[in-house]
Fold these 4 entries.
Entry 1:
Amino acid sequence: MSLRISNAISVPQSIENRKIGKPKQGHKAAATSGISLDKARKSESSNHRNSDPLRFEVTNLNEQSVSLQQKISSRQAALSNLEELSTRVENLKSNSKNPQQLQGTLKDLGELVESAEFEGKSLLKGPAKSTSNNPEIEAVTVKDPPQIGSYKLSILGKVTEGSLQYRIQVADEPDFKKSLLTALSPATGIIEGVEIYFEEKEGKQEAELEIKAPVDGDFPVPDFQNSLAKLETRQENPEQLEREADQTLRKIGTTINGLSEGLDGDISRFQSISNAQENIRAAVSEPRSVSNAIEALESLNSEIVKQSSNLSNLFNSSDTAKDLLE
């Protein structure tokens, strides 16, 4: 289904918050997709010349649409496997006091973590997107983008009034220092967009963390091989096993939330691009109405701005397109 727009030119805000007025002969204005439509506007009186830049716009948007479809499919596959992983960890908790069933559940977990793939790419196992030099302390990204950087982390656990409490300090010299008092692992709020998972024990723990930016727009799903290894080492102690299972379920849940948020944005952008494509195709079939195509792209830009999206993520070939059109 397509939304056919009117021939009237809207007056939206551009990316630099400058007004875009009604196009005139020879007047330059930045097209909302990041691609210059000066030539299309200047050529409005020429049916033959109008169609070529608009067809190029359709081709360019097709490329972005295909890329988004692949990204959406990858995230949907990751979500499906994470939900299945959550179910199996719940089963593990239920079987924590039954050694025979516990072995079977651990085997099922291992097979899922090993086999979960999308187009040959592993979904639930390493390499970890963020790193720690202490295997007992793990940084898990829960919101994209996280506060990237290298950090020194110190955790001091001690018993206070019969309960174990932790004072966590993080520093990124010379500007960033923060401390947090908590009785739970993981700790949130110490580094923006990141959860810190650590061993619940007395004494001092330290680590050097490197929080990395997402690669190619992928949400940084943690390495669940590490979680599986911890579950296996605790199978002789049901209480410790259940506590570790709760940690793993928390990790799965926050990862699902982060992935879902990104997926919703991707689907919305994909729908906006699809609407713009159909409006541009309509303009190509009616060359005297180039304003239809211009408004279609401006409408797409408005949607992207509302979603606080970076234009370069969608139109990464804009420089090439600009050269071809000008």
Entry 2:
Amino acid sequence: MSITFDWIINPIVLLLAGSCGIIVGLAITRAKLMQARARISKLEADLLNSNRETLDAQRAFVELESRLKDQAIPVIPMKITGKEGSKEKLTK
């Protein structure tokens, strides 16, 4: 006696397997898309926070600079007096 296997493809089982595969694929894709959107929103929040810190630092710098302009700070100008036309030639 020889045993043979006849594969019978049931269209209903094939349809159910295909639709389950599509649903699982869509669920995985949707989960990845949600993770990407969450990461993008987190990066946007970090960027806005960084920009806010930069603007605060610039605002503090401008305020400090304006306070220093109002004060009289003695500065001695450094002028180098030298003759530009008479450059010495070095000889060996």
Entry 3:
Amino acid sequence: MAIVLAVLYLGLIQLLMLDSSRQLAEARRFRARIVALTLAENAAELAATGITNPNRQMFQDSGDDALGKWEGKMQKGVTSSDGVTPFLITAQAEAAGLIKQKATVEVSGEIQGTAIRINYTNHSQ
């Protein structure tokens, strides 16, 4: 009887260890997804630097650190007769670590003088 209880107890411990390693893998994937999204958002913000400057038609920035690598790009369109300038910001990022995760952010909008209007944003992985 003691042997049966010992085998059942060891089986229970093994099930608990399997469940905890599954949860650890899930937590790593979640962390990588959040880090990639955050890096992509930061890259989009860096690319928007000086967006109201009429002399800056395009700006691109990239970099990497311990969290991952990112690249952001801002392009302006041709200013219309009513003074509205369309813009498009795209940013990509990849989280570093055991689990690799990529994220993309796209921001489209218009500039009129110093007023900025965002028409849409798109986040994807």
Entry 4:
Amino acid sequence: MDNYDYGKLKFIAFLLFFNKEKQDNLIFNDNIKLRKVYEDEHDDFMENYPHIHPDVLTHVLEINVNENILDIAKKWYDNHRFEEEDWEYLSDEDKEFYIKRILSDYLENLINSINIVINIPISIQALGKYVDSGFKDFWEFEDKFFASFSHEATINDKDVELINNIFKKSNNLSLENKDGYKNNWWLLPFDYFEKYSDSSLLADQVIYLNIVLESLLSANNENNEIGYRLRFRSALYLSKIAGIDSKFVQNIIKETYNFRSRIVHGNSSLDEIENANIKRINEHNISLRACIFIFQDLLRIMLKDAILNHAHKSKNEFIEYIDTICNNNQSDIPYDLEEIEEYWDKL
């Protein structure tokens, strides 16, 4: 280990959309923990982001730059060498730059892992460097436009192990060159699940979420009847792992995939997509936005199971596993469509 005084560095990631009454402090690993925001941190944040409602910020991630973070930064630097000097010869300022660079990916991987495990998503607004009891500067993350902005996200103790398992898999691969995509078929849907919320346009969200679906459940060189195959596999998979009614799943997949086709083939304008209604989900007339809320949750459930229980398999082995699932004909639908539509009508 070199002589760089990494112990002086601590970062605070400001998180949005937690349930302030239910969310406890949690430790993810030896250098990162989730805790309630301190009053002075809240004040500093609001000075920089006065447009955000103060009640939305209740928790932060505290990141201490220990040997583990420094090793990650050094490994990333070695794999993405932008300068001639070895790590040991970089200035303190350059080392801080690369530490901040890997923290951005590190935290986005963690947040994506969290959002695959919990059903209401959270978001990082900014990362601040904390030195001598004060913030020196802020680095802003991209705004997120989730299908749901309900401020009720909660991480339970039992979720931490699942989150860490997904996070370790994705974080280790992100440090390597992107050959990881070829050998780890789940990595592409994992990345796009995080990217779908980068845009406020429903058209973009529909396309990104369908990329998640296709990259997760389509086999290599499968071009015929792809929509049918995706509906069928989704129904089998979700019936087995979550007991969700197959007909309901197929209706959701069919509607969102049809919208995806209308968009990419130029058959719908952006305004038409933003105001679209769906009339064929269990005889309910719901908005496309409400449908996306359900669609991303179905994808989340499948992606979580795929990463935790099938990441060691090849893509063909995973698809063969799904295609041989027996349909249990479950009829319990975990979504109250009237309640969902009533929620969206209030927004």
